[in-house]
């Protein structure tokens, strides 16, 4: 189970729905595919066994095997007798540099023109795969928040899960629904100096699909945002899933700095 807890959140481990129109094996396949395409586990990494997947997700061995068979068929993993299943997908990534100030202004603008509802908030130790990234002891609690963002007509377009460390005050559901989280972080001594974002596409799992009014397996735009303070410490890790029918991501890039 340790390997599964490193790869998946408790909500994801409990996300497969037998009453969904999407078969259980395909729901599991989509979760595994989403992780692999996102680079974690990365190229060459060994995946949990079918028995571990079956136990961790509460499904049968047959269901776990069919999910793994799909990963093999789509050339995402490779099986070798006696060695288990390993990731063979490898996608190069390139960085795009952009000013942080403009991005924070856009976030503030979106916060003013949309609505947020907090579905869950508590303090808990982070998942095993985030402990090292956050640079904290494994048993140190952080703020875990699940929320949905809506347009002014109450159409949901974004589903967020976040883990935030070092917050002593002002981080409750009411404040998060009314204010920009970066302002609350600053009031707790964490002024954000650098943000790293990873964009990809994925199929939505049942709990997210329900909140975004999608069918499980529908495509969503996913974004993982790492926010670092002036000391270089990772303060906040945010995982976003956007409804592709109600959300548009646009980048304006200048040619001013281009040189032949």
How would you sum up this structure, described in words?
The structure is a single chain. This protein is of the alpha+beta class and 260 residues long. The chain is built from ten helices and eight strands. It has helices spanning 2-7, 10-13, 24-37, 50-57, 61-73, 100-113, 128-134, 173-178, 181-187, 206-212, and strands at residues 77-80, 84-87, 115-124, 142-150, 156-164, 192-203, 219-229, 234-243. The radius of gyration is 19 Å and the shape is globular.
Count of separate DSSP helical elements: 10
The main sheet comes to: 6 strands, antiparallel
Sequence of secondary-structure elements: HHHHHEEHEHEEHHEHEE
Rg = 19 Å
- What structural category characterises the helix and strand content? alpha+beta
From the spread of the alpha carbons, the general shape counts as: globular
Strand order of the biggest β-sheet: 3-4-5-8-7-6
Uncertain stretches of 5 or more adjacent residues: 94-98
Mean pLDDT: 82
Measured as a percent range, the helix fraction is 25-40%
Beta content: 25-35%
Quantity of strands, as a count: 8
Distance linking N and C termini: 52 Å
